[in-house]
Amino acid sequence: MHPFALKSGHTGRAHAKRARRLAACTALALSAGILLAAPASADDAKGADAPKAVGSTPRNISSDNILYQNREGYLYLSPGTKAPDYPFVINNPDDPANYVVYKDVIAPGDLQGDGEPEILTLTASGTLTLRTCFSPDRNAGPPTWSGNGWQKYNKVVAPGDLTGDGHNDLVARTPSGDLYLYVSTGRIEGQPFEPGVKVASGWQAYDQIVGMNDATDDGIGDVVTRTPAGDLYFHEGTGDPSEPFKAPFKIGYGYDTYNQLVGLDDVNGDGRGDLMGRKTNGDTYIYHSLGDGRVQARITGKSGWQKASLFAGAGGNPDSGKRNVIAAAPEGTGYVYESLNNGELYGASEGPSLSRDGLSRNASSLNDDGKSDVLRVEDDDLYLGYNKISAGWGVYDDIVGPGDLSGDGAGDLLARDTKGDLFLYQGNGQGTALAAKVKVGYGYGTYRFIVGAGDLTGDGRADVVAIAKDGTLYRYEGTGKASAPLKARVKIGSGFDIYNKFAAVDNLNGDGRTGLVGVNGYGDLYRYASTGTGELSKRVLIDSDFNKYKALY
Q1: What's the maximum distance between 2 C-alpha atoms anywhere in the chain?
Q2: Which of 102, 297, 387, 482 could form a disulfide with 406 if both were Cys (CB 3.0 to 4.6 A apart)?
């Protein structure tokens, strides 16, 4: 599903009329494609038959904008024309007191039937907030509802109307793969959604879940999913809230070529929801629906879309807030290298001063600002910036900030003492204090590096990796439980003793997954991308001359 597009089960003239009223607040416009037999390869471009609009009356949506969040945390609308992108303001990133970088942005469409679509924003700490998206200045209106506890899901999706009552609904997936349906009440205040009800299981098999709105001309929302291997499946909506989807069927393969799949509302005027894929290099391709769950052959869309750290309507799990690495110069200056969402790093810009005598580390965000936090140990105390947040840290020789390890939505820290024992410090979600330490492991003194920055396995939970002195790389999968935050280690690589510097960075490839970077003895910087299954892809050289730094965080 795509930003500001009508997502409704209404059919006939009323449906088309409501859609026309939303023309000023809808999605990307791109030209039509050609028929593709399915299942078929993601890049198959053969075929000649044009799609046929059948069933319900086409929605006639004038789709001319796409909503995205850039790496600095600003939201923009990008017109389908040659006009420049323009800001879409929900909060003001220039106001530190109200600065939030959203973990996800979800566009459910028109929830209350007044012809104006709504927008949902999700913070890392699990607050889901509803607003009207249309106002005289094209920005979001004030909040009409907020709900907490949504961090228990790794993906929230707006597929359209799943119950046939004319109101658009939500589905949400847990890390274990259970799918919950949140039925819309038709209101945007008070209780906009009924309590979640489990409607399916086994959805952990998919690394992307995309709301399509109605792709089959029956007025009911549909969903497309992708496996890490790149197989694409169609889940047709039934209209029955107790069992909202029919059994999935495969409609394509080779879709792992994309780091994000994005649901677009009708972009070619046939009344069906469409699909966009973005490659790592920022090129996009459009797939128009055929009306039976299949899609046409792809057509070329716009390029340069690596500028988007987050698309509204994207199918991948959103990332957790460490989209950079910091290189420490010998004199203590930190240089920041930001992720470009395409496997490369943008740098270097001069960053914070690092501790010359004590520890310094670059942790995943400890609050909702979506930015990594630089931690320093000075005189036995732990500082975030100039603020002391904890005491008694002189006993530790390593600190790791991989993100939320306890499942409460707040970023946490791991600390290793000189005996090799590992302790968990739970964050308070504001970056101002930590809970009392809890011992969660021992024997970690055998590792040269322990790093983490979000999800490596594809379940949305924070994970950790460690390099042993013999060069073996181990994965510690996160559990989401504070009492035992890490599973038993699993070997995922060898030969990593060639690296004298090593770090983790989230969303390095634009897929929402953790990437790893290492510097060898020649100063060359290599990238290891996650496959979404806990394994790593083949290394790629992305930079050089990193021997001038003493460490990488």
Answers
A1: 72
A2: 482
Contact 326, 362 (CB under 8 A): yes
pLDDT tens figures, 168-190? 999 999 999 999 999 999 999 99
The string of pLDDT tens digits covering residues 25-55 is 433 222 222 223 346 778 763 333 433 332 2
Mean pLDDT of 529-544: 95
Tokens of 388: 């002391």
* Whether residue 60 has pLDDT greater than 70: no
Number of DSSP helices (H) and strands (E) in the chain, helices first: 1, 41
Query: CA-CA distance, 93 to 149, in Å (whole number)?
Result: 24
The tokens of 532 are what? 């979404």
67: which 2 tokens? 């909503």
Three-state DSSP class for 422? strand
Least reliable range by pLDDT among 228-237, 268-277, 282-291 = 268-277
Distance between CA atoms of 339 and 220, rounded to whole angstroms? 38
Residue 431 near residue 425 (C-beta atoms within 8 A): no
What pLDDT, on a 0 to 100 scale, did the predictor assign at position 264?
A: 87
Burial class (CB in 10 A: 0-12, 13-18, 19+), 142: exposed
Could you count the other beta carbons within 10 Å of the beta carbon of residue 385?
12
List of long-range contacts for 281-289, beta carbons under 8 Å, 24+ apart = 281/306, 281/342, 282/306, 282/307, 282/341, 282/342, 285/43, 285/258, 286/30, 286/33, 287/33, 287/36, 288/32, 288/33, 288/51, 289/51, 289/212, 289/215, 289/216
Distance of CA 430 to the CA centre of its chain: 21
135 within 8 A of 145, measured Cβ to Cβ:
no
User: Which alpha helices (H) appear in 404-467, and where do they start and end?
Assistant: none
Share of the chain above pLDDT 90, in %: 72
146, 128 Cβ separation under 8 angstroms: yes
For tokens 């910087």, name the residue.
525
**Six token digits for residue 467:** 């390099």
Rounded CA-CA distance 367/389 in Å is 13
Residue 357: count of CB within 10 angstroms of its CB:
8
Q: Does residue 522 carry a pLDDT above 60? A: yes
Q: Are 245 and 495 in contact (CB under 8 A)?
A: no
Vertex 549: Cα angle to 385 and 393 (nearest 5): 40
In single-letter form, the type of residue at position 300 comes to: T
Tens of pLDDT along 471-497? 999 999 999 999 999 999 999 999 999
Exposed e or buried b per residue across 390-410, where buried means at least 16 C-beta atoms within 10 angstroms of its C-beta:
beebeebebbbbbbbbbbbbb
How far is 44 from 78, CA to CA, in rounded Å? 27
- pLDDT at position 114 over 60: yes
Q: Is 497 exposed, middle or buried (0-12, 13-18, 19+ CB in 10 A)?
A: middle
Going by their DSSP bridges, the two strands 222-226 and 422-425 should be labelled as unpaired
Residue in 25, 10, 510, 35 with CA at minimum distance from that of residue 289:
35
CA distance 245 to 264: 20
Q: Which residues contact 58 (CB under 8 A, 6 or more apart)?
A: 16, 266, 269, 270, 271, 272
